[in-house]
Design a protein that fits this description.
Length: 664
């Protein structure tokens, strides 16, 4: 009785459209709705409904979302609603990894050259592997850059294109070359008992296609498949969803065309429409009431996204009217922009830092703000930007840990050899005489490694830098102690590191009262009372890489829409009239997206610290160019745009360090 009541309570809090969607009976369904209309809430309430009302066991539900943090939030919500943990809720990557791990232990991945101890290679490992293929074959990295080839291989895998098909499709020098590397790369991965991130999905899919027994097992297990942010699925994710939903086709997908922002990972918002043709009896639900934002914020978002022509824009309304305008701050330089924002936060919002999000287009933009926040002692955290696992000492220990399970792992072996051949020899002797249960216990395994290799001798307790490293190693022990098995620990670290999982450990003592800083991409699905969208300039948002093509401008505009719609109560934009980027200072123009917002909604604050050229709404104000290319101002920029788009891509995706980028 009380269970039913609880569900009734949850349903009571929803509007009739939301309720109808939650109560959808069997068969496929799609919820199409704009930002903040309660899509995610409908999804989690439906899971509660399935568990409590329909008696579907929690373990028979497959709940997936696209971004890291969002998965953790949904799980938490379902736990609150039902008191139950969902063992198969997460990102596509984490869930696929879980399935592969289970199947590998049954020997079902032998066909792919993988046994139960397979390693997940991260971006750095992938690059190391590709570079070693170049070296062995005498390929010149100057002709086709390893980074570029890596991204070609990654796209192919996301499109489910195998090595032979890739070769058949190749029609230029780069593609033919990439096809050769792709083939060797796959062989090396398999020889080394390893997978990369893209493999997690594509091998999982391939396993389902090839192995009927395995496929049927999961199809029977997952009675309901629910997907949030469906507009960001790529081909392999779409295919996985489809196959898992069979035979009952109990697929419940929610999405919004206007929030598709992962085209660079192969996302295709048309997958939302594809569902309707692939599932003939699909039932469509629409939600139009926004519960998140004020009228002004919603109006601004709508007026920006209305400029996109290639996809539908879903209607939204709210009854949260307010006179409060959106504010724009203009400063002369990027440094002053950071100072300005930091001072506003200090003055107005010091007691509600946790309600603030600072959003930027590229991760490198965080630096100036970090410094300004530190100067004013404003605590902050960076989501998705934790570089903990990239620190030398941590990478060193992780490579030892990985070698304990997979001695074929070449990036780890190469790293361990660099740390010291003697140390590696000792480790091997130790491994040969140590029982599996010691290795499988993360803390014992780490302890054993440290004692055997005398790794800590590298560091000096009196050197402050070394002390920080020793602290990091201690933190690794803390993380390790939360896992019951070393392989699970490694898998989790690999996924966290690449942003596919929420980073559940915090390396910050101020947790709870700090400003959240993150890229627009990582902000999807989240909401904050106060939002600062910084760097609103041509070249940053929209990014210079996108300026040449309308299709890409539309993607940037969706990113802008995602940013605006994160705000509940207060939204600030800021931009600088000049900015120091990629090693030189240049004048910048306010983002075209600002000009798309109804001026009545805006309050403009200018600082006249240095004459205001390029000011917002000035007579110099940026107008949409007739020919899109006119904003690529300097020769240098032009060259980089044309020649090295892939590196820029890598830089934007945080796969490439800025210094390395500048060296290219
Ligand atoms: P996005 O497109 O950004 O992912 P969404 O459609 O998933 O947004 P939610 O995050 O589920 O929207 O909901 C937005 C906010 O509105 C949340 O704070 C949610 O709790 C609240 N909300 C949703 N539905 C209702 C409702 N019926 N009554 C009150 N609040 C609601
Ligand atoms: Mg959502």
């Amino acid at each position: 009785m009380s269970l039913v009541l609880e569900i009734a309570n949850l349903l009571n809090e929803l509007n009739p459209e939301q309720r109808r969607a939650v109560l959808h009976q069997d068969g496929p369904a799609i919820v199409l709705a704009g930002a903040g209309s309660g899509k995610t809430r409908v999804l989690t309430t439906r899971v509660a409904y399935l568990i409590k009302e329909k008696q579907i066991p929690a373990s028979n539900i497959f709940l997936v979302t696209f971004t890291n943090k969002a998965a953790a939030e949904m799980k938490k919500r379902v736990l609150e609603y039902t008191g139950q943990n969902l063992p198969f809720a997460g990102t596509f990557h984490s869930l696929s990894a879980k399935i592969l791990r289970i199947e590998a232990s049954q020997g079902h991945l032998e066909k792919f050259g993988l046994n139960a101890n397979f390693t997940i290679y991260d971006s750095d490992d992938q690059l190391a592997l590709i570079k070693s293929i170049y070296k062995i074959n005498g390929y010149d990295p100057g002709t086709f850059k390893p980074q570029v080839v890596k991204s070609k291989i990654s796209s192919a895998k996301n499109e489910l294109i195998g090595t032979d098909e890739f070769k058949d499709m190749a029609h230029d020098g780069l593609q033919l070359f990439a096809a050769k590397v792709y083939k060797s790369y796959e062989k090396r991965l398999r020889d080394e008992n390893a997978v990369d991130f893209d493999d997690l999905l594509s091998i999982c899919y391939q396993l389902f296609v090839d192995n009927e027994a395995v496929r049927q097992k999961y199809q029977a297990k997952f009675q309901h498949v629910l997907v949030d942010e469906f507009q960001d699925t790529n081909k392999v994710q779409y295919s996985l969803t489809r196959i898992l939903a069979q035979p009952g086709d109990n697929l419940f997908a929610v999405g919004d065309f206007s929030q598709s922002i992962y085209a660079w990972r192969g996302a295709d918002y048309r997958n939302l429409e594809r569902l309707s043709s692939d599932f003939k009896n699909i039932k469509e639900y629409r939600l139009e009431r926004n519960y998140r934002s004020t009228q002004a914020i919603l109006d601004a978002a709508t007026s920006v996204i209305a400029n996109n022509m290639s996809h539908p824009v879903l209607e939204l309304w709210t009854d949260q009217s307010t006179d409060e305008k959106l504010e724009i701050y203009e400063t002369s330089t990027g440094e002053l922009e950071a100072e300005k924002i930091a001072s506003i936060i200090k003055e107005k919002y010091f007691d509600q830092l946790k309600n603030i999000a600072l959003l930027y287009r590229t991760n490198v933009q965080s630096r100036a703000f970090e410094e300004a926040f530190m100067r004013r002692q404003l605590p902050y955290k960076i989501v998705g930007g934790t570089k903990f696992y990239e620190r030398t000492e941590i990478k060193d220990l992780l490579s030892y840990l990985r070698l304990c399970f997979n001695q074929l792992d070449s990036p780890s072996r190469a790293r361990a050899e660099k740390i010291g051949k003697r140390r590696l020899e000792k480790l091997e002797v130790w491994l040969a005489k140590t029982d599996r249960s010691t290795l499988e216990n993360p803390s014992s395994c780490l302890q054993g490694i440290l004692e055997t290799t005398l790794y800590l001798d590298k560091y000096d307790q009196k050197d402050p830098e070394d002390v920080a490293r020793l602290d990091n190693i201690q933190e690794l022990f803390n993380v390790a102690s939360r896992f019951e098995n070393t392989l699970l620990l490694l898998e989790n670290i690999a996924l966290v590191q690449d942003g596919y999982l929420a980073n559940e450990s915090s390396f910050n003592q101020n947790e709870g009262n700090e400003i959240t800083m993150m890229s627009l991409h990582s902000a999807k699905g989240l909401e904050f009372s106060i939002v600062f969208m910084v760097g609103m300039e041509e070249g940053l948002l929209p990014h210079s890489r996108a300026i040449m093509e309308e299709k890409e401008i539309e993607e940037e505009r969706r990113l802008c829409y995602v940013g605006i719609t994160r705000a509940k109560d207060k939204l600030y934009f800021s931009y600088a009239r000049s900015r120091f980027t990629y090693g030189y200072s240049s004048n910048s123009l306010p983002s075209r997206f600002l000009s798309e917002i109804d001026q009545k909604l805006l309050k403009i604050n200018r600082s006249f610290d240095q004459g205001s050229v390029n000011s917002y709404q000035d007579k110099y104000y940026y107008k949409k160019p007739k020919t899109p290319a006119t904003t690529a101002k300097t020769k240098d920029q032009k060259i980089r745009l044309v020649v090295d788009e892939e590196s820029l891509d890598a830089l934007l995706n945080d796969e490439l360090d800025i210094r390395e980028f500048l060296r290219k």
